[in-house]
Amino acid sequence: MLYLLLGLFAGFLAGLLGVGGGLIIVPVLVFIFTAQHFPEASMLHLALGTSLGSIMFTSVASLRAHHAHAAVNWQVVRTITPGIVTGTLLGSVLAAHLSTHFLKVFFVIFLFYVGTQMLLNIKPKPTHQLPGLGGMFAAGNVIGGVSSLVGIGGGTLSVPFMTWCNVKMHQAIGTSAAIGFPIAVAGAVGYVANGLAVKDLPQYSLGFVYLPALAGVVLASMMTAPWGARLAHKLPVTKLKKIFAVLLYTLGVKMAWSLF
């Protein structure tokens, strides 16, 4: 039931705000896994892998809704995807060799960064144009690498990047939903592959993906991601992002507290 409720909420946010549900999925899964007494050494790795696995499905539902509103720049998706895939795969390999404590610290810092960005409505000025293939490959590696370390679809990084490169916000959000698919696929594959040799993982784990959580989150989020995407064109998203920022701060503080 908790996994289903988490999926309903995360899927809706992914479609509505274009930032991906991973920012909610990862910390909540950590809290649930802690209550279930999962091994501390692999707890966050399982949350990250499961989050990326779920985003494979929510990103498809979300990008279809954004595509229906002509809000996906497929040229950007095509040129940035090679870098996205290599960066995400390398990030998942790195994560497998990092401790839960380090990953928690990194995730908490990222939560506060995103929360501050949303609360203050910080947006980069559109002063550049989209770079060539080399620049897009480099940008994709950075976006994919960081996204794999925090288990998200990359919207918090790809939307500001595209805005900085003179892509309209409406289209940047839709395009980021499409970019989330290769991030999620490469990330999920990486976390599965790097977790297969790890011992003492919970039953029903496929590498660093916990299948019962994946099933519950996906089933619910597939229903609500399209609703969020449709409402993104009707609701005051800027105000909603400030509310979401407060939620991120709350999750960040709770997760930081668990470090001590």
Describe the overall structure.
The structure is a single chain. With 260 residues, this protein is mainly α. It has one domain. 77% of the residues lie in helices and 2% in strands. The protein contains ten helices and two strands. The protein has helices spanning 2-17, 22-35, 40-68, 74-96, 100-119, 133-150, 155-164, 169-195, 211-231, 237-258; strands at residues 205-206, 209-210. Strands 1-2 form a two-stranded antiparallel sheet. Helix 2 runs antiparallel to helix 3 (40-68) and helix 3 packs antiparallel against helix 8. The longest helix has 29 residues, at 40-68. The chain is globular, with a radius of gyration of 17 Å. Belongs to the 4-toluene sulfonate uptake permease (TSUP) (TC 2.A.102) family. It is found in: Cell membrane; Membrane. InterPro entries: TM_pro_TauE-like. Its main location: membrane. It is a multi-pass membrane protein.
Number of domains: 1
> Looking at the structure, what is the overall shape?
globular
Helix content: over 70%
Share of β-strand residues: under 5%
- Tell me, rounded to a whole number, the average pLDDT: 88
* Number of separate helices: 10
According to DSSP, the number of beta strands is: 2
Strand order of the largest sheet: 1-2
SSE pattern: HHHHHHHHEEHH
Question: Keywords for this structure?
Answer:
membrane, 260 residues, cell membrane, Probable membrane transporter protein, transmembrane, mainly alpha
Topology:
Layout: H1 2-17, H2 22-35, H3 40-68, H4 74-96, H5 100-119, H6 133-150, H7 155-164, H8 169-195, E1 205-206, E2 209-210, H9 211-231, H10 237-258
Antiparallel strand pairs: 1-2
Subcellular location: Cell membrane; Membrane
InterPro entries: TM_pro_TauE-like (IPR002781)
Organism: Sulfurirhabdus autotrophica
